[in-house]
What does this fold into?
Amino acid sequence: MSATTTTMTMPTIRPRHGLGRVAGVAHDTYAVAVRNLIAYKRVPQLLVFSTIQPVMFVLLWRYVFGGAVRVPGGVPYVDFLMPGIFVQTVVFGSLAAAIGLAADLKSGLLERFRSLPMARSAVLTGRTIADLVRNVLVVALMVAVGFLVGFHTHNGVWPFLGGMLLVLLFGYTMAWIFAAVGLIVGDPESAQAAAFPVLAPLVFASSAFVPLSSMPGWLQAFARNQPVSVTVETVRTLVLGGPVAAEVFKALAWMVGIILVFAPLAVQRYRRAV
Amino acid sequence: MTDTAILVEDLAKRFGEVTALDGIDFKVPTASILGLLGPNGAGKTTAVRILATVIDPDRGRAEVLGHDVQREAELVRYLIGLAGQNAAVDPNLTGRENLRLIGRLTQLPERQVEARAAEILERFGLADAADRPVKTYSGGMRRRLDVGAALVHRPPVLFLDEPTTGLDPEGRNELWAVIRELVADGTTVMLTTQYLEEADRLADRIVVIDKGRVIADDTPEALKSRMGSTVIELGMTDDEEARRAEALVAGVAGGHAESDGAVLRITLQDGAKVLIEVLRTLDANGITPGKLTVREPSLDDVFLTLTGKHVEEAPPPSDRALAKAGAR
It folds into this structure.
């Protein structure tokens, strides 16, 4: 053994159990989240495109299609519309997780991450948390846009903020679906193409823009129970008023269910991704 | 610590129908450079990925500094640096931000992260570009940053998968110098390459692999003495003339002349001296070669010497085969 090798310092190895492990996951998640947020700062197009589309939707539905929609209960259409807009904004925004992870897989960055002494889950939690932070900004902007076009809350500030929290949680949940999709597809363009046929029925065959009662009966059965509608209805009730406990429970149940299926799937795909 | 930094025993890996590695063995002593030489599809990248804990082998085992890459993967990750085949850096981050990210994820104490990033940027000639997004970098700069990122946590064992791909000759020489410095400081390096010259210039030992098997494991000197250091190729009008020329020059070039289609190939230690004799002999018999090349031996010549066949590039495994194998 040569003298030079003995001077080599051995690395400090992080504890793998208990609190040390939790702190390690948090540390690595933070590092990855910062990395993803820098991309939003440096490529403002990412943020601009994810806000232009919902703003267009607000204008389109508020001023073009909205006049033809009859909302039950005499609620102004703009107040009916905005909870749907908030939810569809984070649903379409969750696509970023698929595109981002597929790009990282393709570029070899995930291969590098997998050779590092970091928490296995941090690449995914860091990605989804960065998108959550982005959603806070985007949803705040959409709220401002809503107020500009005449949106009013009917139920006080706290239920409204509770509704926005629910919107953010739903966006976080959807990000896990698309994290799995991105890793399965493995190519940013294909991820985008694969996502649209899934997203379109969820967003458009829902109560986000029109009342369910205007749809044919067979479609209502799907539209009433799918997660986008359930979340939109819950947020709507929080904003417009009414008994909400059962709806909140149903919305949270969807989110827990989605996470339970897609987070392990995404982690499993990450472990096998090269 | 042990004297063997990398130990590979009977390592095998399949991706669906494709056998990437078919039982390879080799050892790399501490503070030395191993060159893993082979054509595209030979299994070089698969070997590196297994050693770097990125994928698991189907069979066999591998150790880094005495630690099993599967059972002690987490510990091994502290000991290794990997620069894969793609320049795996984030184009949206600056060079400094990329190194900072890797520093944090390799668990460097926060107060060391900044200093270490600056050190690497300096060493790889990227200090001026440190705060520019990587997407504005040239291919060579990206590659340098990529290799630098593998060094952030001062790993005692370094894996470099075709590190000089995409570098100009100057960048390549600089990187070679850095690699030699690291090894002088006690780092063990395993690098893959398709170029005999690179393996020859850098490596203490060369392992040649083909279709997932080791076909030679030797020092560069021994490998070259088996096949000569100069290759002369004479292009003839047709196969028949080449065969006639082979017979004519046999006396001058001994058994080192070989016709291969319309080409007469002579591989020798002192090729230049023999070349004159060869040309005189051919001229005296009325043969004038249409084309003349004098060059250093290539990977293809190694293959001709070792296997009697030209390099046969396996097609890269199809995405479908990889997907079936769950490799993605």
Summary: The longest helix of chain A spans residues 157-185. The interface with chain B takes residues 1-2, 4-9, 11-14, 16, 24, 27-28, 31-32, 34-35, 38-39, 42-43, 105, 107-109, 111-118, 122, 184, 186, 272-274 of chain A (CB under 8 Å). Residues 1-8 of chain A have pLDDT under 50 and may be disordered. The two ends of chain A are 35 Å apart (CA to CA).
